[in-house]
Specification:
The chain has 214 residues and is an alpha/beta fold. Helices cover 49% and strands 12% of the residues. It has two domains: 99 residues, no CATH class; 95 residues, Response regulator (Rossmann fold, 3-Layer(aba) Sandwich), CATH 3.40.50. Helix 2 packs across helix 6.
C-alpha cells in the first residue's frame, strides 16, 4: 500500500506533537479496522506449472493468477491488484531487481518479486511467499498507522487543541525550526513505529532526529 498525497496545502506540526503520539492507541485502531484480505499472487511462466502451484496455494488463503510472460503481464495490466510476483522460469531480458522496480512503479504498492528457480521445491517457495506476505502486511500496517496519526494530529491542530509553538526536544540543535513539515513528521512516525517494541523513547528520538537532519 502506498499513500498517495492529496492535492492540498502541506501541514506543519509543532515539535510538541512528537511527544504526544499515542502509538498503542493508533495500533489498536488499526487492528480493529484492518480488513481481512487474501494474498494476491501472480505466477509468470509456462502454463504447465499452473496446476502444481494452484494446488499448493489454496484459494481461501491466496488469490492466484497466471501469466505466460512478463511482456504480456505489462501489456495486459494483469499486474494490478497483485502484490507478490513469482517467476517460474528465468527471465533473460532483465534482472529480478529491474523487474521489481518496473512492477513497483506500475503497481504503486509494496510488492515482492520471487523466483521459483531459486527455491527448487514447492514447500520452500511457500515459505518464501509466507515471509513476503508478512513483510508486505507489516509495511502496509506502518503506512496506514502513520497516515492515521498524521491525520489526527492535523485535525487536532486545526481544532486549536495543540499549542502552535513549543520547545524543540533536546538534540534538534540550535537553528532548527520548532515546527516540522509533513514529510519530517511522517518520517518520525515511521521511525517510532519501527522502534516501538525494542527501543527506549530516548533511542527513538535520537533516530528520528538523525533522519530529520538529513
Amino acid at each position: 500500500m502506498k499513500i498517495i498525497p492529496q492535492d492540498r496545502t502541506q501541514s506543519v506540526f509543532p515539535v510538541s506533537c512528537l511527544e504526544n503520539l499515542n502509538l498503542p492507541d493508533a495500533i489498536s485502531r488499526y487492528n480493529r479496522k484492518k480488513p481481512d484480505s487474501r494474498t494476491s499472487i501472480t505466477f509468470i511462466g509456462p502454463e504447465s506449472y499452473s496446476e502444481i502451484l494452484s494446488d499448493a496455494f489454496p484459494s481461501h488463503n491466496f488469490e492466484s493468477r497466471f501469466c505466460p510472460s512478463l511482456e504480456i503481464l505489462l501489456r495486459s495490466g494483469l499486474y494490478q491488484n497483485s502484490n507478490i510476483f513469482v517467476f517460474t522460469k528465468p527471465v533473460h531480458t532483465t534482472t529480478e531487481s529491474d523487474v521489481g522496480s518496473i512492477l513497483s512503479n506500475r503497481c504503486q504498492t509494496k510488492i515482492k518479486v520471487l523466483s521459483w528457480e531459486d527455491r527448487p521445491s514447492v514447500e520452500s517457495l511457500k515459505k518464501e511467499i509466507s515471509n513476503a506476505t508478512e513483510e508486505i502486511e507489516l509495511f502496509n500496517a506502518k503506512e496506514t498507522i502513520a497516515e492515521d496519526i498524521l491525520n489526527r494530529s492535523r485535525e487536532s491542530l486545526e481544532d486549536g487543541s495543540k499549542e502552535e509553538t513549543s520547545t524543540p526536544p533536546e538534540g534538534l540543535g540550535p537553528g532548527k525550526s520548532d515546527h516540522l513539515d509533513e514529510k519530517e513528521f511522517r518520517e518520525f512516525i515511521r521511525v517510532k513505529l519501527e522502534s516501538h517494541l525494542d527501543s527506549s523513547p530516548e533511542q527513538i528520538l535520537s533516530k528520528a532526529i538523525e533522519i530529520i537532519k538529513r
